[in-house]
Design a protein that fits this description.
six-stranded mixed β-sheet, 20% strand, Leucine Aminopeptidase, subunit E, domain 1, single chain, eight-stranded mixed β-sheet, alpha/beta, 16 helices, 2 domains, Aminopeptidase
Length: 513
């Protein structure tokens, strides 16, 4: 695995020569806030001749310090009331880039401790940001046998959090590999195989469904999306089932559906004018859920059961492709009229959620989630942030607000969206030929409530509509649209982020590792 180990360092003496580290990277909001006098004095003297010190990330010659290298990476705008902990992540990434370019192999990361509650996890977020910066694509690694830039990264005063951080980074690497790898190398069967290999000996229960008869029987909407891909063996659909069960008593259950559209051509409603570029990233939801399961398998937290289903399918074009106006009965027994074949992700998720709903009905304190790069509308609305849309059961329990609070603290901010009665009306099939309409026939980005109403479809198509607040068995459900947050940088070719793995992990852990 392409991973740099994060190492807990308790003693300030590590900043000096002879302690095994070869660069010191300081992430601080202000030079005066640096706790180590030696670093503070050196930085203040350097600022007298170079005004960039404290304004932008800078390398200083530092005799006596580890490796003779001091990199000061200032945290910009930390006092701004609208800033979040991502300002520490940005500074850490700038600093670690300089350390790499300078030839360091074992840098020591020193992150300012802040009393501001927004930044209580600044050290952990900064360390994980280094992993994000250093990750290299699977294709590059396989083609060049490239190795990690560092043998280890030290984290000064980390309060023994390296076990958590390394487990998170292992999951994030798996998620980035699955999301960011091109659609032939990571076609549905290859995606499933990569998961199985990455999770072998993990203790997770793993099952891959690949037989066409079983897929068509149990995942009819998913198979409609992949119908034109069945004639190409390397493109055939898969469903990956994963389960983590802690030792001892179970007091809560989490169920995740991950959208893994390996490539989205738009199907018969074909994407035109260059709209297909980047559509190999439409598997970010399944990738993030797989990465979460990897992390859980390493940490082995107590008291929880976590069930995941990953729907892996290529929305292909061909003579056997599904088309608008078809009526297909979902696994939940609902007749769905297809409105647009480019609204395929909700079809995949509906079948997965239907299976998870049945398991939730007998589970202890269940919470259900769907995670998907679902709509262009969410990007139009919120840019690079995740949108959370929850059912009324989850809303009344405060599930969305809890998740959003965790996300803010860990640098994966969410935007909360509400479901309205209009959203359910939008998916009502007025033709009378089916019970639900999957979508309108226009792009989501120019459709009113384009990222909210798909959650209404998911609720009704999966059978979750039977489990509202007034039912005998209410089930809380949250839909996470990560179309804007699954990658960073370039809109088509940016680096996968593995978001919202950390937020989901912290929610699942509940502070109990």
């Amino acid at each position: 695995m392409f991973q740099v180990n994060i190492v807990d360092v308790a003693n300030d003496q590590a900043i000096f020569e002879g302690h095994g580290w070869d660069a010191v990277v300081v992430v601080a909001t202000d030079l005066a806030a640096i706790a180590q006098d030696e670093i503070k004095i050196l930085a203040k003297h350097a600022k007298q001749i170079d005004q960039r010190i404290g304004q932008s990330a800078t390398l200083l010659l530092a005799p006596g310090l580890a490796g003779g290298r001091l990199i000061v990476a200032p945290v910009v705008n930390a006092t701004n009331e609208y800033s979040d902990v991502s300002v520490f992540a940005k500074a850490a990434r700038e600093g670690i880039v300089i350390a790499k370019a300078a030839g360091a192999k074992q840098p020591l990361l020193v992150v300012e401790t802040s009393q501001d509650k927004r930044y209580q996890f600044a050290k952990q977020v900064a360390a994980l940001a280094c992993g994000q910066e250093l990750w290299q694509s699977l294709e590059l690694r396989e083609a060049t046998a490239i190795t990690p830039a560092f043998s280890a990264i030290g984290l000064l005063g980390s309060d023994n959090c390296s076990g958590l951080l390394n487990a998170v980074e292992a999951g994030k690497i798996l998620a980035r590999d699955l999301c960011g790898t091109e659609p032939e190398r990571m076609a549905a069967p290859a995606f499933a195989d990569y998961c199985v290999e990455a999770l072998k000996d993990s203790g997770l229960a793993i099952r891959v469904i690949e037989e066409r008869e079983e897929l068509e029987r149990d995942y009819p909407l998913l198979c409609a999306v992949g119908r034109a891909s069945f004639n190409v063996p390397r493109h055939q659909p898969r469903v990956v089932k994963l389960e983590y069960v802690a030792e001892g008593a179970i007091d809560r259950t989490y169920l995740f559906a991950g959208k893994g559209v390996i490539y989205d051509t738009g199907g018969a409603d074909i994407k035109v004018a260059g709209g297909m570029a980047g559509m190999s990233r439409d598997k970010g939801g399944a990738a993030a859920v797989a990465g979460l399961m990897k992390t859980l398998s390493i940490l082995k937290p107590k008291g929880i059961r976590v069930i995941a289903e990953l729907g892996l399918v290529r929305n292909s074009i061909g003579s056997d492709a599904f088309v608008p106006d078809e009526i297909i009965t979902s696994h939940g027994g609902v007749r769905v009229r297809i409105g647009n074949t480019d609204a395929e992700g909700r079809l995949v998720l509906a079948d997965l959620l239907s299976h998870l709903r049945l398991q939730a009905m007998t589970a202890i304190k269940p919470q259900l989630f769907s995670v998907a790069t679902l709509t262009g509308h969410v990007v139009r609305c919120y840019g690079g942030y995740t949108a959370l849309v929850e059912n009324k059961v989850a809303q009344q329990a405060g599930m969305g607000h809890t998740l959003a609070g965790i996300a803010e603290q860990w640098g994966e901010p969410f935007e909360l969206s509400s479901l309205r009665h209009d959203d359910f009306a939008k998916v009502h099939n007025i033709s009378g030929q089916g019970e639900l309409l999957s979508s309108n026939n226009g792009p989501s980005a120019i459709t009113a409530r384009g990222h909210q109403y798909p959650a209404a479809f998911l609720i009704n198509a999966s059978g979750l509509g039977q489990h509202g607040t007034g039912s005998a068995m209410p089930l809380p459900f949250a839909h996470l649209d990560i179309a804007g947050s699954a990658t960073e940088g370039h809109s088509l070719y940016g680096k996968p982020t593995a978001s919202p793995l950390v937020t989901l992990l912290q929610s699942v852990l509940g502070g109990n590792v």
